[in-house]
Structure formats: structure tokens, C-alpha cells
Amino acid sequence: MKSELPAKELPDHHCPVCGSKQRVFLRYPWYICKECVALAEDGDGRRLNFGNVSFSGGFCFGYVDEPDTESRVCGSVFCLIHGRPVYVTEARFGGTVAQPLTSSHAVGMQLYDNVDLRRRTTS
Questions:
Q1: Contact (Cβ atoms closer than 8 angstroms) between residue 43 and residue 120
Q2: Pairwise CA distance, residues 117 & 98, whole Å
């Protein structure tokens, strides 16, 4: 028995950061739009970018101001968008997905190679 809703009955989805209407993905009910993910930064205000390690998957991140530096491979990244904590990781079938950070994401933090960039490292 499938639990999927017919397309006409799917709820609307709006980016939790900017409010723009987005396509519904039941697997990621609170995903953040690409435009807002481009605003992701660490605790020092340095912009981040995200991607897959290869065509077969894997997750990595880098700094926008270091385009020649090799991306860092990890399980996920905890960072900030407009000062609010978000969780960015590999999507199920490739690509990346960002969602607001909730306590349920933090519970499994020790299980994966997570990188927490929310704190300031400079004064």
C-alpha cells in the first residue's frame, strides 16, 4: 500500500528562508531553495559551496573565496543562512539538499563525518 498523496493533493512547499514557492519533495519537506543555499556561510561569514565528490555520489564543501582549494569531503555540514542554523548533505539520488537544522539532525551527528561551521573561529 503506497502512502504517497496524489499530485493534486500534495501540500504547497515554500522555502523556509525566503518563502518562494518550490516543487514539493516529500523526502525533504523543509528543503531550502538553491538561491538561499548560495547564501550559506560559516560562523565567520565566509560563503560556502557544496557538491558531490563524483558522479556516483559523496558530499563535499568548499569556500567561495578559495576556488583553487580542493573541496573537503565529509558527511554533512552544519552552517548558517541569514544567521540561522542549517544542515546540508548529499541528496538521496545525487545533488545536495539543505534544511533547517533541527534537534533530530543533531542526534545522529556522531554517526557521520559532520563538519560544524556555525561557530566563529576568528575574533
A1: yes
A2: 14
The angle formed by the CA atoms of residues 39, 12 and 21, to the nearest 5 degrees, is: 35
> Which residues of 1-123 form beta strands (DSSP E)?
13-14, 21-22, 48-54, 57-63, 72-74, 76-81, 84-90, 96-100, 114-116
Domain chopping of the chain, boundaries: 18-116
For residue 41, what is its C-alpha cell? 556561510
pLDDT at 100: 94
Cell numbers linked to 12:
504547497
pLDDT, position 1:
46
Strand partners, 57: 54
Give me the pLDDT at residue 111, please. Answer: 58
Q: Which of 74, 83, 79 is nearest to 64 (CA)?
A: 79
For residues 20, 25, 28 and 34, what is the CA-based torsion angle, rounded to 10 degrees?
A: -40
